[in-house]
TrEMBL record:
It holds the Pfam family DUF402. This is DUF402 domain-containing protein. InterPro entries: DUF402, FomD-like_sf, Ntdp-like. SUPFAM superfamilies: FomD-like. Keywords: Hydrolase. GO terms for molecular function: hydrolase activity. The keyword Hydrolase applies. Residues 78-182 form the DUF402 domain. The keyword Hydrolase applies. PANTHER family: PTHR39159, UPF0374 PROTEIN YGAC.
């Protein structure tokens, strides 16, 4: 049975390493879950889990393969900006984030190329594909992390050259949507304000339940066009 979420529900959005370990965990509240996808709000001060080394130093700046080859652990930090609205469209190989610096003031969009979402009762899991698109409020856009994407192409932990071409094609499809000004780049949610009763979202007790995701998501043309669904017991 497909998992769906109700507005206001606390969920986690987890990005996974290729070996299945949690890379980052974002704590959020559900804005909407409908035919457009799952929209969540990550408010300022919400808990964010990121990898650190054994001395507690963040490892995000390290090359991905180097980070995976060393012992790391997840440590809590906080979402710093006013808030971020993230839409994960159903069946897509990407997510779109609206970044706000102050209430109702859009800084721009951030498109993250990733595997189609794996849903479970506590939230969603995705594998990151490195390549991103930065979009200004006037819809001017530019690529981000192209070198990282190229460096990971062909590595046994990541994707082949053929798979990279599929990821790039998906990204180029999104850029055409940006240029046309189609949803979600049509002004929707650009002045979004969260429910007045929503404060920072804390880390729920079930945030690290074992993932149902496979150790690696194959990148195929079909896989980037379909949404995977998974269920497990309702978190307590």
């Amino acid at each position: 049975m497909a998992v769906s979420f109700r507005p206001g529900q606390v969920v986690v959005r987890r990005c996974l390493h290729p070996d299945g370990r949690l890379a980052t965990v974002q704590c959020a509240r559900v804005v909407a879950d409908d035919e457009r996808g799952l929209a969540i709000w990550i408010g300022a001060g919400s808990t964010l889990m990121r990898r650190v080394d054994v001395d507690g130093e963040p490892t995000r700046h390290l090359p991905y393969a180097e980070e995976l080859a060393m012992p790391t652990m997840l440590a809590p930090t906080r979402h710093q900006r006013f808030g971020t609205l993230v839409l994960t469209p159903a069946g897509a190989g990407h997510s779109v984030a609206w970044a706000f610096d102050t209430p109702g003031e859009l800084l721009g969009w951030y498109v993250n190329l990733e595997s189609p979402v794996l849903r479970w009762n506590g939230g969603i899991d995705v594998f990151d594909f490195a390549l991103d698109v930065l979009v200004q409020p006037d819809r001017r856009w530019e690529w981000k992390d192209e070198k990282e994407f190229a460096d990971q192409t062909g590595h046994p932990l990541f994707w082949t050259a053929t798979e990279a071409a599929v990821i790039r094609a998906r990204a180029e499809s999104v850029t055409r949507t940006i240029e046309r000004g189609d949803f979600p780049f049509d002004g929707t949610w650009c002045d979004y304000l969260p429910d007045a009763g929503w404060g920072p979202t804390p880390l729920p007790t079930w945030w690290d339940l074992p993932t149902l995701a496979p150790p690696r998501v194959d990148v195929t043309a079909a896989g980037l066009g379909q949404e995977s669904e998974a269920t497990r017991g309702q978190p307590g």
